[in-house]
């Protein structure tokens, strides 16, 4: 096992670091981070952008599943099925960057959006009334499909070059 040093060594190293002029004079400014929008709204220009979109859409669908599971306690047990579908597909999307999971997410989000719109127009069917949430889910799923297909197509050569 590698020796990491004693706590005294760490304290001495930190004291030396703080003696640097930019720290001691009070003129040190941390590096400025470039303001960025959510990856879901950004262009997909690189493999990193595509992976960020896959990650953020997976998180969004996991949060949506959590919200639906919570609401199922008050509204109806049928929402649990939607939540389970979102959890499974989001997990597959996040873990494997799965094009199939992203494509099924688009179909399911489109179905949910259609049922929501039909419910608002007066159809006698169970469904939500939050068109905004259904639209966000559909848009995010579409972006996930775009990102996963680019990961396997346009950015696949970058992955192969990085692994060698």
Which short descriptors sum up this protein?
elongated
Question: What do these coordinates show?
Answer:
The chain is an all-alpha fold. It has one domain. It is 68% helix and 0% strand. The protein has seven helices and no strands. It has helices at residues 7-18, 21-24, 47-72, 79-96, 99-120, 131-152, 156-163. Helix 3 (47-72) runs antiparallel to helix 4 and helix 4 runs antiparallel to helix 5. The protein is elongated, with a radius of gyration of 23 Å. The relative contact order is 0.12. The model has no long low-confidence stretch (mean pLDDT 84).
Strand content: under 5%
Number of helices: 7
Helix content: 55-70%
Largest sheet: none
Rg: 23 Å
Total DSSP E strands: 0
Task: Characterize the overall form.
Answer: elongated
End-to-end gap: 30 Å
Order of helical and strand elements: HHHHHHH
Write the layout of secondary structure elements.
Elements: H1 7-18, H2 21-24, H3 47-72, H4 79-96, H5 99-120, H6 131-152, H7 156-163
Put the structure in a nutshell.
The protein is mainly alpha-helical.
